[in-house]
Design brief:
About 65% of the residues lie in helices and about 15% in strands. It contains three helices and six strands, in the order αααββββββ.
Amino acid sequence: MKKSRWEKFKDGCKKVGEWCKEHWKELVIGAICIVIGAVLTVLTGGSFLAALGIGFKAAAMAGFISGGISVMSSLIVSIFSGDSFKTILEKGLRSFVDGFASGFMWGGIFAGGAQTISAILKFSRSGTLIFGGEQLQLFKPNNFSSKTLGKIKIWPPNGLNNLNSGGTLFKTRKNFQIGF
């Protein structure tokens, strides 16, 4: 007996619900990291919605890339195992959605982490937090300087007028630095 469209739709919704039940932790971890980064961005004068949108976009892109890589590896294994076409499609779809969940989580962790580090760097060079539109000056920016270990400067602040978000974590000489 053929299933009606409504029954097929219900079955599809049930599968989506089961997938969400299996992967809710990864999705929530990624989302929480993004929200934390967006909140910290707001405290240093940035836009919550822009930071949130950029974070979720980065996490979704990481999810799609991870899902695509998972599909490719699954397809290769299935083809060499001699699986039927239907089995290959089922395994490919399953590996994509599993890979997407993992990629979304890691993308959210890295996006939220980058926003957090950027907010910390901005705060360290301005000394100002923003609450409800009011600026709270916690320290004077000229009191902040980097720490030096030999020839390595740790956390050298960018100029206060630098409009780029992020900053430098550490640098050696003029040619080499790592930052956001």
